[in-house]
Amino acid sequence: MFVLTLRAPQVASTVRAGQFVNLGWTPGPLLRRPFSVYRSLDEDVEIVLKAVGSGTAALLAMEMGDRVSCLGPLGRGFDLARAGTVVLVSGGLGVAPMPLAARDARAAGLRVTWVHGARTADELCGEADGDGVVWATDDGSRGVRGTAVAAAPDADVVLACGPNRMLAAVAERWPDAQVAVETYMGCGTGVCLGCAVPLKRGGYDRSCKEGPVFRARDIDCAALPSHLPYAVTA
Amino acid sequence: MFVLTLRAPQVASTVRAGQFVNLGWTPGPLLRRPFSVYRSLDEDVEIVLKAVGSGTAALLAMEMGDRVSCLGPLGRGFDLARAGTVVLVSGGLGVAPMPLAARDARAAGLRVTWVHGARTADELCGEADGDGVVWATDDGSRGVRGTAVAAAPDADVVLACGPNRMLAAVAERWPDAQVAVETYMGCGTGVCLGCAVPLKRGGYDRSCKEGPVFRARDIDCAALPSHLPYAVTA
Amino acid sequence: MTVDMSAQIGGLLLRGPVLAASGTFGYGTEVPLLERRALGGMVSKGIFLRPREGTPPPRIVETPSGMLNAIGLQGPGVEALLREYTPKWAEWDFPVLVNINGETAAEYGELAARLDGVPGVAGFEINISCPNVEQGGLYFGNDPHAAAAVTESVRKRTNLPVWVKLTPMVSDIGVIARAVESAGADALCAINTFVGMSIDLNAYRPRLSFRTGGLSGPAIRPLALHLAHQAARAVRIPVIGVGGITRAEDALEFLVAGCSAVQVGTATFVNPRAIAEVHDGIAAHLHAKGFSSLAELPRYLPRD
Amino acid sequence: MTVDMSAQIGGLLLRGPVLAASGTFGYGTEVPLLERRALGGMVSKGIFLRPREGTPPPRIVETPSGMLNAIGLQGPGVEALLREYTPKWAEWDFPVLVNINGETAAEYGELAARLDGVPGVAGFEINISCPNVEQGGLYFGNDPHAAAAVTESVRKRTNLPVWVKLTPMVSDIGVIARAVESAGADALCAINTFVGMSIDLNAYRPRLSFRTGGLSGPAIRPLALHLAHQAARAVRIPVIGVGGITRAEDALEFLVAGCSAVQVGTATFVNPRAIAEVHDGIAAHLHAKGFSSLAELPRYLPRD
Ligand SMILES: Cc1cc2nc3c(=O)[nH]c(=O)nc-3n(C[C@H](O)[C@H](O)[C@H](O)COP(=O)(O)OP(=O)(O)OC[C@H]3O[C@@H](n4cnc5c(N)ncnc54)[C@H](O)[C@@H]3O)c2cc1C
Ligand SMILES: Cc1cc2nc3c(=O)[nH]c(=O)nc-3n(C[C@H](O)[C@H](O)[C@H](O)COP(=O)(O)OP(=O)(O)OC[C@H]3O[C@@H](n4cnc5c(N)ncnc54)[C@H](O)[C@@H]3O)c2cc1C
Ligand SMILES: Cc1cc2nc3c(=O)[nH]c(=O)nc-3n(C[C@H](O)[C@H](O)[C@H](O)COP(=O)(O)O)c2cc1C
Ligand SMILES: Cc1cc2nc3c(=O)[nH]c(=O)nc-3n(C[C@H](O)[C@H](O)[C@H](O)COP(=O)(O)O)c2cc1C
Ligand code: FES
Ligand code: FES
User: Fold this and answer.
1) Is the CB of D120 under 6 A from ligand 4?
2) Alpha-carbon distances, residue B189 vs B98, C116, C244 (angstroms)
3) Interface of D with C in 264-293 (CB under 8 A)
4) Can you give the pTM of this predicted structure?
5) What is the pLDDT of residues A2-56, one digit of tens each?
6) Inter-chain touch D195–C64, beta carbons under 8 Å
């Protein structure tokens, strides 16, 4: 899991938790690649990524000072207009949108608990600047043995991001939870309809426009493509 | 006009004047780009180039240590099995194969005269390690005003490389001259037939196999594509 | 630098020859319109009479210099279009054509009739070629009689400009082009996407849930250029070139090959300024070559 | 790692499923054969009865992830082929098929008869699809009757394996595939190049002297994969996939889509080791997935 820093003042100053940026560069793949904003520090935004294919490999091969085109902030982020407690449940790379979520949640006066889940300890993310932190690993190599969802306490607000099976478990336990979903994207701006997210009530919403954050109960997790690299590796 | 140095021991040790290397790199254009070998120094070979399109631009943007795949030496070079004098007539970038030609000619015991032609003085190449040097510019800004061909003395062996119009003038004055021809190439190894050079007697030879060096009298200069970037900019 | 970039096409006077291609610009309302001065016009996402859900994800796959899409013509149907979008279009300073679709020739006609005369609707682009719909799409586009029938049924119901968008999946595009020309089309658009496939080597099945998708992007440009050129040679009505146009040079190739205008699609996904850059680049080329109008650009259009 | 990579195709047992595509490997004599162990077989450059000069330059243009070629089937004719090449082929440890061409069905037959039984000639690949020849080529490939006629005329004159190479420029490849299958083809190759064009913005005319050329390379892979899949669904004889294959993953997509073998063309121009890398990569994938032979690779081939 690597962190990439981009100098992008406008994005940094306006991005909200759960929103993403769409990155393109030449020579590079034809389509841009969307990434959740991991952190934003005055002029810069950070993204966190793993090499899963052509795009991420190319990004990780970049050197200090290389230029990428950065469109954003895009999409609808988390809704934090609530008082009380918030729990941030993430699996693997699903931690990506959480640091901003913690920031905005605290700004909104919420008590923040992190729940980090991963297969093994070394896949866990270090983020811990919350009021409480819970670790969960499938193999028990750190913290609770088992899933992040099982390990998580209840809260007034639940935010989750991770593999599809985790989102399903979240929807099961907290129908009102807000989950960040990944899909392949063509445009990232709402015009191509390539990022369809299947809805329980039938039909599709656009991950890049109505999403990437949805109410757990609204989306049909079973119908989410299972073989998207992010969903698999997250 | 820029010089690029490649670490390519096998090529450096075997290349003969007039032969070329075929360069490929990723990410880069689909097809390799052929370049005459300009000089070879023990482990290294040099090429000389100008940015005319995607490939040359990318090569010129490379940094020390970048890797390119280098196929070669390819093609049939100049035939220097003669005694006496040799004159190297080049227009602009057409100077590319000449330093090696001078080297091999001297090794064969020939007296070498350089004739450098270009539009203006600043397009002229500096090479001058011969027994005699003649400069010619269209605008007279250096040396003789006029073409390299007009400025050149006669000799036992004439080697020429440059724009199509120059090759035509060479063929006119020295039917036996050896000229290096440029074409678009698919494979560079003789299998695709993409590099056809039209022959006076009808039909085509392959620039990459029977060429790139031909007898001036054999090729149909008028039928050579006039809009190849190299032919135009050289 | 003042070059006359206007283009007279199938009953419409466009301020510039670069349009946004159907399905790649939504309804024009999704994205704030940067540099609309450069936008000659826009073709809306393909619409049917009734709402359509579209296909399940994954709907897109990237390929070398291209992308496959299988959206399945998801859309709200004509009534929602009239409610939500046409009123906005009526206020814009560039023409919006509606990309119309149907499963029978009659359906196309009905759809045109419903939209005819509605403020904001400047004309129609008949999609006889969308490769993603099992009925309709492919079938109409491959058969000159079916293609002509659809064109007639629309022509009968409207006086607005009728453009017909051709499919590339035919053995002789000239035959279809002539058929729809004589059926009353005002202009042709060439071309829609090519049918393609991509296999997931983990699941050992197609990556797209629809199995196949339409290939777009720079990869198809040389093919689209040839087909647009063949169509232009076959008919007297204007041809709008579309397929892989990313830079001004690409658009100029279509214009020289006999097209009167171009559409830019996939390129706008990558570069939100693509249309403006293409427009300005064409103007710059014309200026550099000493032409004072688009009409003066030399065309290569042997009629043999 | 021992995976059985052999493939039984249209009367030939290949040691591996990766062949060199016609026109991209010459006559096999131009380049020293590196790693021939990985070469399942080779298809020679297209040949006619009589020598052909081919088209004037420029013959190739690069395009995004592809290239256009208009070689015009330059070749020495069958007598020179027999003199210069077949004797060499006779000594090689992999089969060489001759890509045969003609302007009439009878000419194809004559050519096959002349080569039948000649040592070094392992079979024929009928090119009904080369898009660069004004007569012949396109015409045969687009019409099921013409395609069947050519196949029959060759079938009648030889007992060697007869493969038919299909053109992509058709509205339904299944129709042609079935026609040549019933005419006696032992296998199909899908596909040949797509017709494309490129315009020179200095000369305002096509870059290729022939005006159009055949598009090959990664750009066409998703289209070739779809057409090879459609052909495989339409017939019972084996299909050899060709079009844009560059890496083992590409070849595996064709094999999963129902192909029994693949050909690699343009990729060998860029990477002289392409065929070996594709071969070894397929073996590695099979091994990693726990398959002991190519035959065990799951196929996605709905017959609906
Ligand atoms: C809103 C959003 C936020 C995201 N945030 C992050 C983040 O914070 N960090 C992060 O690492 N990633 C994130 N992603 C995923 C990211 O955008 C890339 O898609 C992912 O990293 C893979 O890109 P790639 O180019 O490396 O892989 P690709 O080369 O695009 O593909 C990866 C693999 O998937 C295969 N593949 C491609 N298309 C399909 C298909 N349609 N069906 C099946 N297989 C296919 C490819 O062949 C390859 O094997 C996010 C995605 C979205 C939509
Ligand atoms: C044997 C040989 C030796 C060579 N030696 C040298 C050398 O020493 N130095 C050197 O600089 N170059 C040399 N060249 C030329 C070189 O290989 C490149 O072709 C040239 O530099 C242009 O490559 P590019 O990728 O920069 O341009 P490209 O991007 O390939 O194209 C340049 C321009 O030509 C256009 N174009 C492409 N194809 C065609 C076509 N078929 N018809 C018309 N226009 C077309 C492009 O659109 C572009 O505008 C040599 C060529 C050969 C065959
Ligand atoms: C995501 C997507 C959706 C499309 N939807 C439509 C459509 O609804 N109707 C239509 O006629 N063409 C549709 N097209 C085809 C484009 O309008 C255009 O013809 C094609 O993409 C080729 O142009 P391009 O390479 O510039 O994208 C769509 C293309 C894409 C990529
Ligand atoms: C330069 C060149 C020459 C070709 N010549 C022939 C030919 O003579 N006969 C034939 O059937 N196909 C010919 N082809 C087509 C290839 O065999 C192959 O079908 C096509 O290039 C697609 O595969 P690829 O993308 O791997 O190159 C030629 C292709 C190229 C690029
Ligand atoms: S990615 Fe294009 S609509 Fe969402
Ligand atoms: S470049 Fe292929 S034969 Fe010369």
Assistant:
1) no
2) 22, 61, 31
3) 285
4) 0.95
5) 999 999 999 999 999 999 999 999 888 999 999 999 999 999 999 999 888 889 9
6) no
